Amino acid sequence: MVLNEAQQIASAMGFNILVIIVNETPVDAIPNGQLSYCHIVAQNIYDKAAGLYRLLQQYDASCLFIGGGHIIGDEIQTAKN
User: Fold this and answer.
1) What pTM was computed for the model?
2) Are 31 and 19 in contact (CB under 8 A)?
3) Residue 37 pLDDT more than 90?
């Protein structure tokens, strides 16, 4: 899984890892020992993009997308909009 590999590399380089999840994220989908912080942005994955961009705007932050399917494509399109 690309995401897992990126997290391992970033963690080994000393970066803090913030994982954005939703209330419906299964516990076993959250990487153990590779993240520094976890933040819930929505109830389900279909509402995640809006919550993610509110969080980014609040902190004047950026997001790097690595891999993904249709949901990630929707999040990238939301960022473009």
Assistant:
1) 0.69
2) yes
3) no
